[in-house]
Amino acid sequence: MALSEPIVIPQASDLERLARAWAQPRGFWGWFMNVHHTAIGVRFMVTSFIFLLLGGILAALMRWQLARPEHGVLGPDLYNQIFTIHGSTMIFLFAVPMMFQGFGVYLVPLLCGTRNIAFPRLNAFSYYIYVVGGLLLWVGLLVKTGADAGWFSYVPLSGPEFTPGKRSDFWAQMITFTEVSALGVAISIAATILRHRAPGMTLNRMPVILWEKLTVAIMVIFAMPAVMVVSSMLLMDRTINTQFFNPAVGGDVLLYQHLFWFFGHPEVYIIFLPGTAIISTLVPVFSRRHIYGYIPIVCSVVATGFLGFGVWVHHMFATGLPQISESFFTAASLMIVIPTATQFFCWIATIWHGRLQLRLPMLWVFGFFFVFLIGGLSGVMLASVPVDWQVHDSFFVVAHFHYVLIGGALFPMFAGLYHWIPKITGRMMNEGLGKVHFWLFFIGFNMTFFTMHFLGLRGMPRRVYTYTPEMHWGALNTLATTGVGFMAAGIIVFLVNFFDNKASGRLAGPNPWSGGSLEWATASPPPPYNFAELPTVNGREALWDAEPNQPIVRGLREDIPEVLVTHSLDSDPEYREESPGPSIWPFLTSIAVSIAFIWSIFSPWGIAYGAIPVVITLIAWLWPRGHSPARRELERREEPWTR
Description:
Blueprint: E1 2-4, H1 12-21, H2 27-33, H3 37-66, H4 76-112, H5 120-142, H6 167-195, H7 208-239, H8 253-287, H9 294-307, H10 323-335, H11 337-352, H12 360-382, H13 385-391, H14 395-425, H15 431-457, H16 474-504, E2 534-535, E3 552-554, E4 562-566, E5 573-578, H17 585-602, H18 605-622, H19 629-636
Antiparallel strand pairs: 1-3, 2-3, 4-5
Helix pairs in contact: 3-4, 3-5, 3-16, 4-5, 4-6, 4-7, 4-8, 5-6, 5-17, 6-7, 6-17, 7-8, 7-9, 8-11, 8-14, 9-11, 12-14, 12-15, 14-15, 15-16, 17-18
């Protein structure tokens, strides 16, 4: 490979060979064979948005039931199923798959300046496993065996004694499906960031969004096994009569909570950090200046990743743990505010000293500032043990975590969608409709969830399907339910805007926002090979800091899908390797794994017998084909970078 000047224009024949080498398969079977990151990223985003709509419908049903006292819309059993499926959908099927997997899979290779994600077949497998897990949870609801013990499924309520049948089994295996998916994507994203960055993109020049994606990927790798283990222990208690959580024979119900929340609170930051990544990307673009405090922001991101594993017990303050332990976790819960506040101050300073352009994505950024600040302040209150005891399991807690999770997920999500949909579709969204969407959603959100603070302070507990008129909660619940109507109207406006944009929206061009990161260095939507010539980087905002004759990478073959592998620290080119192409085997492997997991709900032999097709499909997936390893090794030994 050699370094060339950007004035070198690729020949049409070279682009044709590139297009053939990186072509995405078409047709019915081609859909299941496609492993390119842009296709899989869009699928993650679309599927998780559908789950958002489904979860929102369940939320509207709950609010309709609670709109007035002794309302008879939903019975207690159906209500329990609905609030469990709602919470599980929003946490496991929407928030992480959209904020981490969807945006990450689509954007990370473009931000790194490479042609595909690392381990693309593993990435495709992760999508199919995620879909099956979501269908498993929702099929249970549709056939009236939906999980009904809460999205956290505490024992002993979710154990065999109090929840017979298969309701909690469906929930437990849904956890396994979705967390295997998240782990696969985390490995792909971490490897892409560490080994496929454009030459010149040293760790000190990585965009903040890549730092946050890398931090979240590492958090997923360490946090997700905990919830997979505890859900598998629950499933074994229910199916093969193990006694992990039975105190009568030496088990421990608090062990479940410790394992679950060891995942559960890092999960909050696994959702929140991708949101801050979007904010840290959009603020410089619409302030027309580099991010203020790059090093403090990066340090804050990494610190949040570490501290997020040390605060889980604040979910368990009411369980009777030793007070000395609670004091340590109170301190950690207060400490984690510091890195988040640091990011806030850096964003404000960037806007303050920039030339603000109040475009549609920035409206959502300011909405995030307002909403998440309220959620963060109520979180500081809940970090205090006496306050937590008073409002524990009340609607005050419901209000807090919706402000944190919706403020930390939905507002940045819509900001990111309005910012990057022109890159994905090639067309601009309508700003007028977008502003209507923002104000409807912003007003409705605060009507619904700010009201819940007062319901909690007036003593309304969580997870009750009705209440009596004597409690005097009716007016506030009616106001909260009205807010859901505003939010629903805002989502409808967004959908109208999106489909109208796809049909007749104004063409976006390669860089409609004049952004500085590498995803804007290619066409909108990107070609199948992402970049005709791989870019190099000269600063933290690659396009803004580019020199007049910025070098580009030359020498990758056009007849096979090759990617450049660079050093993890300095991003110096090391060698080139062939990216795995389209294959049906990731899909077939996901079917085999799904059969084994679902079979295990009904019989423990499902794992033993189900492993046979899993092994067969994995062998077929990994069977060497195409270019010989000897030839690839010879090409790797070539000098990959000359000046």
